[in-house]
Amino acid sequence: MPYPPPRTPSGPRRRSLLASAAGAALLVGCSAGPDSAAGNAPSAAARARARAARDSEGLLARYDAVLAAHPALARPLGPLRAQVAAHRAAFADRAAASPSAGSASPASGAASGTASGAASSPALAVPAGEKDALAFLATAERGLADRRAKELLDVPGELARLLASAAAAGAAHAYLLTEEAK
């Protein structure tokens, strides 16, 4: 008994379909990005960056309130406050919510953070004792570091690295503040 002749499919081949699907996916992936002008809504990464800048601004306001209430803590808190100001500047550098923040240098951002943070936020209730004030800052640093560590899982590479760095610094600040309060 002879074998029947091989059957040739009448439609497109499987390889052609896979190549077309891969090409379409590349085109879609390249055309819609965070910088696309098609939508007016900011991307999730832009919202996360703006939120991180606001969170750093709020933490900076806490440092300023503690320093205003306890000037003797200026020496131990100065470097920590400067790092928080640098984080705020790094997040605000590309945040869509504040385009003018990118033009400020970290040094000028740290200087302007004192004035704008204290002026834009209501007076914070700072504990009367220095140790309690340090614990107040440690709690704020720890909470923000925890939120950033969770949030970095949902953002793209560069922003995730920045959030991870800020979260690690915040955890270190919380540790140092806790040790200082002992």
Describe what you observe in this structure.
The structure is a single chain. By secondary structure, this protein is mostly helical. The chain is 69% helix and 0% strand. The chain is elongated and about 100 Å long. The termini are far apart.
Helical residue percent band: 55-70%
First CA to last CA: what distance? 94 Å
Shape: elongated
From N to C, what is the helix and strand string? HHHHHH
Strand content: under 5%
* Count of DSSP strands: 0
Radius of gyration: 25 Å
Biggest β-sheet, characterized?
none
Q: Helix- and strand-based class?
A: mainly alpha
Give the structure's gist in a few sentences.
This protein is mainly α and 182 residues long.
Give the helices and strands, then pairings:
Elements: H1 14-31, H2 44-69, H3 74-93, H4 106-120, H5 130-151, H6 157-181
Helix pairs in contact: 2-3, 2-4, 2-5, 3-4, 3-6, 5-6
